[in-house]
Design brief:
mainly beta, 20 strands, single chain, 2 domains, 6-stranded mixed sheet, rod-shaped, 30% strand, 5-stranded parallel sheet
Length: 379
């Protein structure tokens, strides 16, 4: 994690405190409009009165001259004001994120208990925030705050959903994509997400649905036939076979007549034949499994393939005219940034798309277009 704290101040750690300086540092100062947390100044030569330099403790004031900040706790709010009370005082409070962070917890940073004060606070997102889990946002703010801006110059990328049927994913449906920025601001006032032209807040894409199983092959019908024979009587059929008729043939047993001097052979038994037939069904081949769905686009898949896997081939049939099972359907493609995953002919669906910003009690401003924000972003 790379998050730095900077302030407009602290001022007057030592030395003289002049009204002209107080005017420049508090009334004339405006927040910087580029990243980095520094400040610029307006030209303001008008006189300033002590009454303008009382610490403002009204939380609904969106731009107090002297804000209510932890660092400003010594500055009077109504009476007994002294310029010496401005030792180590501040005007604005900044944190700046750079580099790469996963699941950045914005409200857990070093705000010095200023979130619930009316001092103007800015979280500059200059690097990349990402998430590798669809159950966690890439960057999260979940607290009460007043006058807070999330100023996005860099990237906030939600997690892409896993394809249906892949490890840890639903089956057959694809996994929903993850949200990018969570803004569950509980109460407070003037909480804003400011999107710069270079910023990217992208919800994750949903995973593709697993492909449908291939159709099973059609069954076949087998026929086996055998001829059994026996001398003198009809033979039986082997187990599983049934008789389809019998008939006689040549003589198979004879004897001599009497008396011997007039011997002649006489037939006493003929060969008997039986036709035996067995018929049975054979199963068609089993259809191949559908291919797993493709992964959605996300922090975890910024440039890889979104394609689903090819289906498996079916098994062969059991013979006698049975056909093979069909190849399983190719898995649905994963969704691009903030897009739902592809559907197939299976019984589920592609994973839903993730949001760019989710939560409540926030507004969005700045450069909003298809390049800077992908996914829903309104409260």
């Amino acid at each position: 994690m790379s998050v730095a704290v900077t302030k407009a101040g602290p001022y007057y750690a030592s030395g003289q405190i002049k009204f002209s300086s107080l005017r420049s540092n508090f009334r004339a100062q405006v927040r910087k409009e580029t990243s980095g947390g520094s400040e610029t100044f307006n030209t303001d030569n008008a006189a300033i009165k002590a009454s303008e330099l009382l610490r403002n403790i009204t939380n609904t004031n969106t731009n107090p001259v002297v804000p209510n900040a932890t660092e400003n706790s010594s500055i009077a709010t109504s009476s007994n004001w002294k310029s010496s009370q401005f030792r180590n005082s501040i005007k604005y409070y900044y944190i700046t994120q750079s580099g790469t962070d996963t699941n950045l917890d914005i409200d857990a940073q070093s705000w010095n208990t200023n979130l619930t004060n009316n001092t103007v606070k800015v979280a500059f997102i200059d690097g990349t925030c990402g998430s590798s889990s669809v159950n966690s946002v890439a960057a999260d703010f979940n607290a009460t705050a007043y006058n807070l801006t999330i100023d996005v110059y860099g990237n906030i990328f939600g997690c892409g959903g896993r394809g249906g049927g892949t490890t840890g994913a639903p089956d057959p449906s694809g996994e929903a994509g993850g949200d990018a920025l969570g803004m569950a601001s509980s109460g407070g006032n003037n909480v804003n997400v400011l999107v710069r032209s270079s910023g990217k807040i992208y919800g994750g894409g949903g995973g593709g649905e697993r492909g449908a199983k291939g159709a099973d092959g059609s069954g076949g019908r087998c026929r086996e036939e055998t001829i059994q024979q026996n001398c003198g009587s009809d033979p039986g059929c082997p187990g599983g076979f049934s008789s389809q008729g019998s008939w006689g043939g040549r003589c198979c047993r004879s004897r001599c007549g009497s008396p011997c001097w007039s011997c002649c052979e006489q037939c006493t038994a003929n060969i008997r034949y039986t036709r035996c037939v067995k018929e049975y069904d054979t199963a068609g081949g089993t259809g191949g499994a559908g291919g797993t769905g493709g992964p959605g686009r996300g922090y975890n898949n910024q440039s890889g393939s979104l394609a689903g896997a090819a289906g498996a081939g079916g098994s062969g049939g059991g013979g006698c005219g049975a056909t093979s099972g069909a190849t399983g359907e190719t898995g649905g493609a994963g969704g691009d940034w903030a897009s739902a995953g592809g559907n197939t002919n299976n019984s589920g669906s592609g994973g839903a798309n993730g949001r760019a910003i989710t939560g409540s009690n926030y507004s969005v401003s700045g450069t909003i277009n298809s390049s800077t924000v992908k996914g829903a972003y309104r409260p």
